[in-house]
Amino acid sequence: MTNDLPLSKEQILDAAEQVLRRFGPDKTSVVDVAKVLGVSHGTLYRHFASKAALREAVTERWLHRSVAIPLEDIAARKDGSAADRLRLWLDTLIAGKRKFAAEDAEMFAMYAEVTLHAVEIIASHVDRLMGQMAVIIEEGIIKGEFKPASSIKTANAIFMATSRFHHPAHVAEWSSEHPNEPFELVWELLLSGIVSSHES
Amino acid sequence: MTNDLPLSKEQILDAAEQVLRRFGPDKTSVVDVAKVLGVSHGTLYRHFASKAALREAVTERWLHRSVAIPLEDIAARKDGSAADRLRLWLDTLIAGKRKFAAEDAEMFAMYAEVTLHAVEIIASHVDRLMGQMAVIIEEGIIKGEFKPASSIKTANAIFMATSRFHHPAHVAEWSSEHPNEPFELVWELLLSGIVSSHES
DNA sequence: CAAGTGACATTATCGTATATTTGTCATTAG
DNA sequence: CTAATGACAAATATACGATAATGTCACTTG
């Protein structure tokens, strides 16, 4: 109607994200999304199996665009020490989540919800992130900056150990505490666990 | 009625816990608790300011009895290495939470709820636990087993870094994953961060 | 007067009739 | 044959009066 080209998933996601932002996840119906696109709601079911699938797809895209891509850039950079880059990577991850929670509370709540139910999507997102960390760690090991170890297992451990600072289940604690102090403690401990002891 | 001695807080907590277990937190009213005690519900308000306060008190007592006390025993023991004792302490904490979540789901849900709202109670419980860990760590430092550092800050960092395995916000993940593998990775990393490098 | 009561106002929950939304599918349009 | 429709049944949500729970307090009781 608005457009005669066949409707794409991306278009639907754009519309869904826009409506979700405007009305909040509780007040958006699939009819609302269809209205924005100028199609009937039945059409959306040719592209997404359910409303939940649509919401998950919106979340997945957000995670990819706003979390994975920016972090990818940091992981791919070759400047500075591995420790600094690892720290920057974590700071960026954590700051990104905090910003999201603070400035886009409704969308964040939806993400937290999806995290509990859409195990697949989250697992693959986390795998991607851990792969990025592993790249940084691997480089640190090659340069002799970090102790030899399985970079992927180390990445896994660091990701787990910093959950409190980036997992959505902990939002409540982020706002009520001094931003960096507890993370600083954990960082120092983790770092001293991975650095090579005969470090120059 | 049932008893002519003045009603004590402990008695009320006993009754409340019993009813909470029987009916679940959603279906228990303060009238139900009063009924078990054979008093009017008004009486309970002479001892607890609100229903929330009563639920918090039940949770607090549970945390003390079932978590803090058993762990205290481990922290106070003087046998074996500090690393082994620290590991045992963490294993006990984690296993305790898992057991609670699995075998007493409704009470656990109440605990998770309280964690979000009753900041004071949880903070003081966590402080107690961190004090216990600090004792173990301090001993490790004195024995030369661990690197010199602030034992309380280290305890803090280890507690934070292991949140994923004992914080109630993560229940969902406990059941769906292989029990010990991820923790093992984190433990190794943390341990290598605290052990003295010139360890015999 | 310390301990407990129970009627009362306030607040939350329940049941249910009503309305919306989700999800399906036979049908239309190109 | 692909894309889209819209009427429809089933599942959910909403509104709202009825019912129950929470929290207060002037009052009894030993």
From TrEMBL, chains A, B:
Please report the organism this UniProt entry assigns to the protein. Paenibacillus endophyticus
Keyword DNA-binding annotated: yes
List residues annotated as DNA-binding: 29-48
Looking up Pfam families in the UniProt record yields:
TetR_C_27, TetR_N
Instruction: Note the Gene3D superfamilies from the entry.
Output: Tetracycline Repressor, domain 2
Keywords attached to this entry: DNA-binding, Transcription, Transcription regulation
Q: Does the keyword DNA-binding apply?
A: yes
Q: Which SUPFAM superfamilies match?
A: Homeodomain-like, Tetracyclin repressor-like, C-terminal domain
Per UniProt, residues of the HTH tetR-type domain are 6-66
Spell out the molecular function terms from Gene Ontology. Answer: DNA-binding transcription factor activity; transcription cis-regulatory region binding
- Name it: AcrR family transcriptional regulator
